[in-house]
Amino acid sequence: MHARDRSLALFVAVLWGANFIALDVGLGHFPPLFFAGLRFAVLLPLLLFVPRPRVPWTWLVGYGLFFGALQFAFLFVAMRIGMPTGLASLVQQASAPFTVALAALLLRERISPLQVVGILTAVAGMVLIGWHRAQNAALLPVLVTVCGALSWAVGNLCARKANAPNPLHLTLWIAVVPPLPMFALSALFEGPTAGWEALASVAESPTGWSALGGLAYTSLLATIVGSGLWTTLLGRYPASRVAPFSLLVPVVGFTLAWLVLGERPHPVELAAGAVVVTGVFLGSLQRSRRPAPVPAGAPGAPGPVPR
């Protein structure tokens, strides 16, 4: 992976690490399923100015369903029923090994021994952090968060298969998928008016304006900028090389919680975070021997994808 793209992946990790604080603020006011739908609904007006990406509807809907709807529905519900913000940022990154495993199984992507070492190193650091924080979370919220991580992994594969010419357009257009199912589930499980009443009371509630700030961050920065860059990187490199960078998100989340909220990470977490960083770096390295380029027009050569 080129140094510039590695820097972009690190930037996405920072955006997504800070996003967990924004989500915690937003969920302090909005019901979780409604908030999951609202996150993407506010992006729909932008589609009037953005052409639909030239990708099959199958992959666009799949990306929107797994990455946009299911991932955040599971995550938001888990955080509402007791999943600590820092631990949520950690467990959600199980998407990285899920992505690598699914890419190898379904897309037949090859993984180098160095990448395997990097992934295992990063996962070991993540497990160490999880073990240290496990006493702060019940089992059900953790399992629900893992379901969100698995959904994210499937969404990564859909984005890679879509191979959008303009990844930002794909990121914006998945906004057509989550709102209706999320609002329907919210009406069913949270009450038909709970979410809309929370939205109507923003100006009067002491948590309303901060919740709007959290919504703006998660919709504009985390979704448009972060997910747009992430989709771009997935289009350039195998999923096994991009996914490990998501393991940096909990390290960023712990650090920002320390700087912004005054939460002091335990020395065990700091040491485990260093292990995660090392593993991500190893997992993103290119193999020393690269295959010779395939001549244009030969079987397996890259070319324009029919849309």
From TrEMBL:
Give the matching InterPro entries: AA-Vitamin_Transporters, EamA_dom, EmrE-like
Spans traversing the lipid bilayer: 32-50, 57-81, 87-107, 114-132, 138-158, 170-189, 209-230, 242-261, 267-285
Tell me how this protein sits in the membrane: Multi-pass membrane protein
* A Pfam family matched in the record: EamA
Q: Domain EamA, which positions?
A: 8-130, 142-282
Location of this chain's protein in the cell: Membrane
Q: Keyword set for this entry?
A: Membrane, Transmembrane, Transmembrane helix
Going by the entry's taxonomy, the superkingdom of the source organism is recorded as Bacteria
Question: What does UniProt give as GO cellular component?
Answer: membrane
Residue runs in coiled coils? none
Q: Which family does it belong to?
A: Belongs to the EamA transporter family.
- For this entry, the protein name equals O-acetylserine/cysteine efflux transporter
Organism for this UniProt entry: Saccharopolyspora hordei
